[in-house]
Amino acid sequence: MDIGARLREVRILRGMSLRNLARKVGVSASFISQVEQNKCQPSLDTLQRISEALEVTTSYLLEPEDNGVSAPKEVLELRIPNRLKYLSTLADFLKSVCQNHEVPTEDMENILLAVDEASTNVIKYAYQVGPLNYFKLRVSFDRNLVQIDLLDQGRRFNPLEDRHFDKEKFTGDEEGLGIGIQVMKKVMDDVRYRYSANDGNHLTLIKRISQSKGNGQ
Amino acid sequence: MKIEVIDTQRNGIHLIKVEGRLDASFSSQLEDEIDTVLEQKTKSIILDFSEVTYLSSSGLRVLLSINKETEGDGGLVLINLRDIVKKVIEVAELDNYLTQAKTVEEAMAILEAKSKAK
Question: B72-81: per-residue pLDDT in tens?
Fold first, then answer.
């Protein structure tokens, strides 16, 4: 990811408008916009002020391409068999990681829910259960952002493709109603999917942690 | 962890206590258990969710399926839902679709009123 895209991503996750960020940095909104479009390069001093305003390190904004995945400071990885019975193990792992990072209860519950839905999709639709295989769960923490990446080598499956649950048409037997996707999108701040021949399916879930950090029960 | 289903009948209404985590792995167990209940004459079901610690869209699908199966001839009411379970139902925008009650008595009144209305 280039600096412009990264800047824009962080700014939006911080819920900051162009104008708001520009004011904090002491530049014009159009300047920020041009940086985001990689039409101009900020000086090192300006970049530092932008990083401070966004509460990230300068190196986070400058970080070189890493398959488009941000590489924040602390990263935990778990390899999980493509079996539904491990969903609860996965939930226990994530719960413990979130508690370690003092993620407030409500944010943690949302993360657990989204990851459970996403992992269910990987097992049921990318691997279609099938022979024993593994998918990877990567959890990264950076300040008040939690990023979860799910990587699998199953068949190409984009969970974000449009599906809308229609209560009236539901006969009682269908699977894959799209409710899980709806839930996942609602409880996370950003959900992205990409596919490449090397990496297979790659779903990224991002959650901005509420300011009441540490107040969770 | 597994799903425990305890079924008792009161006034022809099934009161079923469900225990456990209703994710993609365990919700099919609930569906299997309820399928045997649905073979019986009475299709009025109260599900006591006081010991359900988690609900995902897979669990929701099972609830929608039971709801559909019972709607013409009985009904489904959920009671004693934990906040986390309520929240999932709300996020999925199904709170107006799945009937909820606070107590067994309230749930029975809803189901009895439904059967009288037929």
Answer: 888 999 999 9
- Tens of pLDDT, residues A107-126: 999 999 999 999 999 999 99
ipTM of the complex: 0.88
Contacts of B68 in chain A (CB under 8 A): 170-172
Among chain B residues, CA nearest to A175: B61
**DSSP H or E segment with residue A136:** strand A134-142
Instruction: Judge if A190 and A94 occupy the same domain.
Output: yes
pLDDT band per the 50, 70, 90 thresholds, residue A59 = confident
Cβ within 8 Å of residue B82, ≥6 positions away: B49, B50, B52, B53
Using CB atoms, which residue from A85, A167, A183 is nearest to B57? A183
Q: Is residue A163 part of a domain?
A: yes
Residue of chain A whose Cα is closest to the Cα of B67: A172
Distance from CA of A164 to the nearest CA of B (A): 11
**What pTM does this model have?**
0.74
Residues A78 and A28 in one domain: no
Dig out the tokens for A136 from the structure.
């990877």
